[in-house]
Amino acid sequence: MTINQRILVVDDDEQLLNVYRNILEPRAKQVSALAMFTDEVEVEPVGLERAFELATALQGVDAVTLVEQSLVDNRPFAVAFVDIRMPPGIDGLETARRIRDLDDRIYIIFVTAYSDRGVDEIQQTIQHDVLLTRKPLTRDEILQLAHNACNRWTQDQQLVNRQLSLEQQVQEHAIARLSMESLVSSLSEGLVVCDAGGMITSSNPAAAAMSRYDEEDILGMSVGGLFPDLVMEDLLSRVQAQGAQQNLSCQLLCGDGAQLPVLLSASAILSVAAHGRAQGSQTACAFVLVWRGLGEN
Q1: Cβ pair 126, 108 in contact under 8 A
Q2: Angle of CA points 86, 91, 92, to nearest 5°
Q3: Claim to verify: residue 10 and residue 138 sit in the same structural domain
Q4: 126 and 252 assigned to the same domain
Q5: How far is the C-alpha of 60 from the C-alpha of 151, rounded, in Å?
Q6: How does 90-102 read in b/e, with b if 16+ C-beta sit within 10 Å?
Q7: Is the keyword Phosphoprotein assigned to this protein (predicted)?
Q8: Measured between alpha carbons, how far is 140 from 266 in angstroms, rounded to an integer?
């Protein structure tokens, strides 16, 4: 993610705005010929220092308008340097409050020579990501504040984007699961899922109806209890080694003791092998067994 380097400066002193421009706007690196000759600095190709994109306003209402436009353009500011006293308009605290109402992400750095606004009042009004500094600031202090705020804004947005992506994935998985559950429930064939040890972990309504068990009773049963004429351990091993096994003729042992002839198919749900096995190998974490009555289409 590209670092957001958009900075807003609000101060009623045009000379101070020019100071910010001289410090933050891009300019060519300068290396004196004497320094290069005496090898006092590491010689680099002439280029640009890290370039911030600067917008300035003399009054608070103008700054609020700039923030509104930045959101319309989808080019938000990362940080705002805000003077406290800016007559005749709204002061810096009110300016910052209105900016925050528009964009909760922006970092606020108050720069003032006065103490008429206390830390507690500022914190209560702005809530978070706010800093109070005193004039005059040095060039290095302004640069460091700008770098840190822009980097932090970008890191915060990366975290937000990751969280949104995870939430979207969870939502997509939930929708897919509901769709699959709906599909499985509508099947006329019996279906059970068992773990690698053969214990049934889920089933569909048709499985309960055909086997004459309650759905709750099927869960936790050994799948071998439903199909006693098959050596279930051997079947699951074949599925793991050879792939799906189709249309196996066997008997379904029902809950009332009756036996029904069925055609059974079995397949594996695969997962990447546990750490320590060959890279890229897979192992069965569960098995799906589907059956229908013999003679059904």
Answers
A1: yes
A2: 95
A3: yes
A4: no
A5: 25
A6: bbbbebbbbbbee
A7: yes
A8: 69
The sign of the torsion formed by the CA atoms of 226, 227, 231, 235 equals negative
Residues in the chain: 297
Q: Is the peptide bond before 26 cis (omega within 30 degrees of 0)?
A: no
Q: Give the separation between CA 174 and CA 31, rounded to whole angstroms.
A: 60
Would you say residue 164 has pLDDT above 50?
Answer: yes
Any domain includes 121: yes
Order of strands, sheet of 6-10, starting from the edge strand that comes earlier in the sequence? 53-57, 6-10, 79-83, 107-112, 130-134
Residue 284 predicted with pLDDT over 90 = no
Q: How many helices (H) and strands (E) does the chain have?
A: 9, 10
Same domain membership, residue 95 and residue 131: yes
DSSP one-letter string for 51-79: PPEEEEESSHHHHHHHHHHHHHTT---SE
Per-residue pLDDT, 283: 64
Phi, psi angles (nearest 5°) of residue 224: -65, -20
- Asked if residue 178 is part of any domain, the answer here is no
